[in-house]
Amino acid sequence: MHYTFGIKQKFIALALALLVAVSVFVAWFFPMRQERQMSEYLNQKALVLAQVTAYGTASGMVFDDTVSVNNALAGVRTLPDVQFALAYNTQGILMGEVKQRNAAPYQQVIIGFRGSLAPTVEELRAITIVSVPIVLNDATHGQLILGLTREFLERDVRSGRMMGFLVSMAIVVVGGLVFFWQTSRLVRPIQTLEQAAESIAGGQLDIADVAVVSHDEIGKLTRVFNQMVGNLRAYITQIQHQRNELSTVNSQLQENNLELAAANEEIQRQVEVQAEQSREIELANSELQEKNLEIDSAMKELQAAQSLLVQSERMNAVGMLTAGVMHEINNPNAAVLAAFYDMKHTITQIHDFFFNLLDEQGKHTRRAQAFAQLCDDAQQTLSIAHNGAERVKTIVANLQTFTKHQRAGLYQIHLVEELQSTIEIFRYQFKNVAVQLSVAEDITITGNAGELNQVFLNLMVNAAQAEATAITIAAVRNTNARMVELTIADNGKGMTDEVRKHIFEAFFSTKGTGNSGLGLSISRQILEHHHAALAVESVLGKGTTFTLAFPFASSEADG
């Protein structure tokens, strides 16, 4: 079973993409920022504590008093995060030390610090080691090495990460539920209208009116749809009544024919004695046959008119429904586009704010670069979603230009604009057919854009169904004939002369079953309504060219 990815699914997918992007950002950025700040605080705390402790041991170091040095170091023994504190004199001799029972062995690291009299901070996986000089009266008397555990920092970081993860999950769940609820309320009436329209298109005119569930644009669209269905039922009833009357006339004619046949038999039996009457009867028969032919022709024209009326009402219904749906799509799509813009701007601000907190060295760390890459990935994801929303906007604009059902009658239109919109609609189905358009921007004609677009699209679809791979459309002004001549040429398989003679007849088709054979017949009737001529030239195996001649628009005719 073929599954269609509808409007509702598209909106939900876009919203989930946004929510996931924001959630990932929240779950990654804030714990990382918290860890950085806490690590800087721990390093600063270790440096200050080492400097204070070094100052306390300075007097003992001056006199090589190990007891005084150990007493000064005993003050840090009560601090739970201090792992060890070591005091060395300038000759590298250990003058005092304090160690926790569970202090990890860092002898190799401490050896690397020995002899360095400049303040130094080293971050290891589980401990921060600080080395400061012991100075008294501007003279250096030794070195103090102090180690602070990072266990409390790691515990707080894990707690922050768990909180960020829980917040991001809450954003995804709550935001997804809210957007799913709102999208369902928006799309459900449109789906109801779509199902009703499909039923009517399938010939089920006895369906009940669609319930009006709101007083907004969708409710107005529902009321208009119900009114349109009612009008369509009335038109169909009128056509059926006319058909019944025509059947009655046909029955009467058949009875007359039977009576006339009986009279002919009687006349033939008396032909030898009533030659003059026989000639009159023959003349009457000829006239009656002509009338029968006229009646048959009238019946075919009536059937074509009935088909044209049904087709026109269906096109009008589809046009009105399309306009309403396009309006309802444009509103939420515009909100989505605005949200994309705000989100891209917000991510840029967060990126700039984060890097403004760092010094030049911090901006080039691995974590800072990873954060920048994360921002770039979020921007790319938003760009992909933004392109999808722009694609929806373009398709809706092309459909809105093509239908133009709201405006009736004839008016001045720009030929190139209508052809461009029709070509866009044509390319949605026939992507492998190349279309070349050569029409001046200033060429205008007088007509109904919706009806002419139907003619243009019908000719192009016929060319594609005739296995054409290229279509050329051109228009020129014939000032002598005061006409605008539009040619639509293709390189399809062409037609024979016999087929070309019948292509404008109603119900004539070479495409087999499933085709009404009314496309070119209706197109010619539309052009006759526009006082335009339609001609065709075709060569079997080489292609077909249709020429449409429109009178100059009123502004050009006056000029």
Quick recap:
With 559 residues, the chain is an alpha+beta fold. The protein is 62% helix and 15% strand. It has helices spanning 7-62, 66-73, 107-113, 151-201, 217-269, 275-356, 366-403, 415-429, 449-465, 497-502, 519-529, 554-558, and strands at residues 82-89, 94-99, 120-123, 127-136, 139-149, 411-414, 434-438, 444-447, 470-478, 483-490, 533-539, 543-551.
What topology does this entry show?
Layout lengths: L6 H56 L3 H8 L8 E8 L4 E6 L7 H7 L6 E4 L3 E10 L2 E11 L1 H51 L15 H53 L5 H82 L9 H38 L7 E4 H15 L4 E5 L5 E4 L1 H17 L4 E9 L4 E8 L6 H6 L16 H11 L3 E7 L3 E9 L2 H5 L1
In total, the number of strands is 12
Overall tally of domains: 3
**In which order are the strands of the major sheet placed?**
2-1-5-4-3
Proportion of residues in helical segments: 55-70%
- Overall, the morphology is rod-shaped
Strand content: 15-25%
Between the first and last Cα atoms, what is the distance in angstroms? 60 Å
Round the mean pLDDT to the nearest integer and report it.
76
What structural class is derived from the secondary structure elements?
A: alpha+beta
Largest beta-sheet characterization: 5 strands, antiparallel
Weakly predicted, low-confidence segments:
none
Give the ordered list of helices and strands: HHEEHEEEHHHHEHEEHEEHHEEH
Separate helix tally:
12
Oligomer: single chain
Query: What would you report as the Rg, rounded to the nearest angstrom?
Result: 44 Å
